[in-house]
């Protein structure tokens, strides 16, 4: 019997191939996915990892054996798979381990219209079936097996995104893009084709062994090559995509990273111009500037926990037009509430190209406070350290505490959030303040308590 406890996560399936899972298990996941979603047809895509084509085909076999017609879209980004799910009205499965190292792979699953499948929305049932079948043998095939056909949706995906953001009238821009040998190398050339953009590509060769650097732009060391290329070529900006190209990070004309909170605020302002009075979702680690800009533009900000399932749930509940996270995930109502870094990137290009100034000047209005970035501390007792920090602040005058997600401590001049990792013995600290010196003081005090 397969041990799925370390393989099936809160929102997806992810583990080392073949140590933790293989094509035989992928076939069972395909059968279970069809049974739980009761799907007559599904769509499947995969990234450039060496194990992805085989795992994807095995999943398709399992799904077809249960009677579902399978459309394989082949190599794609995760948001391209979401597009296919929304555009075709089919449940979908994407084979990727995102930014994880080469030996990992995984499955991100969704219902029709890109609605997420997580622990509470079908993933627990899928796991139970796979465990049952891996012990007792594969399920009986359907009386009439489904078909497996191929379809290329890349051009349709690109055309749909370009319909959502008008780039026709922008000034010509030089744009450096680091695809990290991931799926951005597949999608960017088609999405940018015909636009007034001079593209400077880095690491567009699809290679799931990641020979140049990890496809994880959240780690500053993986932005170094892009920053140097922007300065060397005098590009107007740089874009960095993660392995499955659903997240996009931005650097300005000087090579300085632009905060995802600033990008969230910029895109929110543009979406509110299209949809006046709309609701915008932001997680509790995004900057104060995000709800401020939303209110200034006549919108309603809604604060949520960290994580795509919470963002998408709130977007569906409130009818929000847009949502953003500090981790550079950007969600759009016009994209079935799913996240797409590419669409956020097009908004940045449209905003920059629609005026004469540099990006550093444009984003200054959206980047108003001093932030620490995320600081991780390894601790033996997460709950105990959180309790100690709470005790240190709860009786201070002018201090507010809330526990929506971890512990948030705030005053009129600063705030910090301390959250436990779900997968590692870590506490994650984020601090923001009106002044740099205040941010440093609060950061150092909080870290001293965490690491005591």
Which class of the largest domain in CATH terms?
Answer: Alpha Beta
In CATH terms, what is the fold-level topology of the largest domain? Alpha-D-Glucose-1,6-Bisphosphate, Chain A, domain 3
Question: Could you name the CATH homologous superfamily of the largest domain?
Answer: Alpha-D-Glucose-1,6-Bisphosphate, subunit A, domain 3
Number of helices: 14
**Radius of gyration, Cα only, in angstroms?**
22 Å
Q: How many independent structural domains?
A: 4
Based on secondary structure, the structural category is alpha/beta
Distance from first to last alpha carbon:
43 Å
Strands, total number: 22
% residues in beta strands: 15-25%
The amount of helix comes to 25-40%
Question: How much is the average pLDDT?
Answer: 96
- CATH architecture of the largest domain, by name, is 3-Layer(aba) Sandwich
Largest sheet: 7 strands, mixed
Oligomer: single chain
Overall shape: it is globular
Architecture overview:
Residues 6-134, 156-255, 263-369 form the Alpha-D-phosphohexomutase alpha/beta/alpha domain. Its cofactor is Mg(2+). With 452 residues, the protein is α/β, with parallel strands linked by helices. The chain has 4 domains: 13-152, Alpha-D-Glucose-1,6-Bisphosphate, subunit A, domain 3 (Alpha-D-Glucose-1,6-Bisphosphate, Chain A, domain 3); 156-253, Alpha-D-Glucose-1,6-Bisphosphate, subunit A, domain 3 (Alpha-D-Glucose-1,6-Bisphosphate, Chain A, domain 3), CATH 3.40.120.10; 260-364, Alpha-D-Glucose-1,6-Bisphosphate, Chain A, domain 3; 371-450, 2-Layer Sandwich (TATA-Binding Protein). It contains 14 helices and 22 strands. The strands form 4 sheets. Strands 1, 2, 3, 4, 5, 6 and 7 form a 7-stranded mixed beta sheet that branches. A hairpin with an 8-residue loop joins strand 4 and strand 5. Helix 1 crosses helix 2 (52-65) and helix 8 (260-274) runs parallel beside helix 9. The chain is globular and about 70 Å long. The chain starts with 12 loop residues before the first strand and ends with a helix. The model has no long low-confidence stretch (mean pLDDT 96).
């Amino acid at each position: 019997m397969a041990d799925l406890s370390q393989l099936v996560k809160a929102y997806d399936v992810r583990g080392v191939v073949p140590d933790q899972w293989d094509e035989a298990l992928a076939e069972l996941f395909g059968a279970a996915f069809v049974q739980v979603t009761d799907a007559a047809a599904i769509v499947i895509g995969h990234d450039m990892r060496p194990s992805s084509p085989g795992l994807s085909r095995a999943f398709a076999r399992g799904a077809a054996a249960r009677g579902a017609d399978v459309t394989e879209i082949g190599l794609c980004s995760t948001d391209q798979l979401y597009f296919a799910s929304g555009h075709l009205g089919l449940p979908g499965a994407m084979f990727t381990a995102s930014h994880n190292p080469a030996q990992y792979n995984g499955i991100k699953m969704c219902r029709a219209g890109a609605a997420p499948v997580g622990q509470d929305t079908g993933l627990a049932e899928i796991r139970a079936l796979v465990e049952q079948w891996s012990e007792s043998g594969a399920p009986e095939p359907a009386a009439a097996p489904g078909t497996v056909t191929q379809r290329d949706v890349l051009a349709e995906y690109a055309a749909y995104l370009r319909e959502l953001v008008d780039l026709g009238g922008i000034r010509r821009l030089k744009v450096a893009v680091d695809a990290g040998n991931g799926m951005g190398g597949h999608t960017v050339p088609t999405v940018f084709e015909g636009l007034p953009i001079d593209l400077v590509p880095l690491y567009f060769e699809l290679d799931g062994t990641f020979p140049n650097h990890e496809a994880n732009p959240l780690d500053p060391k993986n932005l170094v090559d892009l920053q140097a290329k922007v300065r060397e070529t005098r590009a107007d900006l740089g874009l960095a995509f993660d392995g499955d190209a659903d997240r996009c990070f931005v650097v300005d004309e000087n090579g300085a990273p632009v905060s995802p909170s600033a990008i969230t605020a910029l895109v929110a302002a543009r979406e509110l111009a299209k949809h006046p009075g709309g609701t915008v979702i932001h997680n509790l680690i995004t900057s104060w500037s995000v709800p401020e800009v939303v209110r200034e533009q006549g919108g309603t900000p809604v604060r949520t926990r960290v994580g795509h399932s919470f963002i998408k749930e709130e977007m569906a509940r409130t009818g929000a037009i847009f949502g953003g996270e500090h981790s550079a995930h950007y969600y759009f109502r016009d994209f079935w509430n799913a996240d797409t870094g590419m669409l956020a990137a097009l908004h940045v290009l449209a905003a920059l190209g629609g005026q004469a100034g540099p990006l550093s000047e444009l984003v200054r209005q959206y980047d108003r406070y001093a932030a620490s970035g995320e600081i991780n501390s390894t601790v033996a007792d997460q709950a105990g350290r959180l309790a100690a920090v709470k005790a240190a602040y709860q009786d201070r005058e002018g201090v507010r505490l809330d526990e929506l997600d971890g512990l948030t401590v705030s005053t009129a001049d600063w705030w910090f959030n301390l959250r436990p990792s779900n997968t590692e013995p870590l506490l994650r600290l984020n601090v923001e303040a009106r002044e740099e010196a205040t941010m440093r003081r609060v950061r150092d005090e909080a870290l001293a308590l965490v690491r005591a």
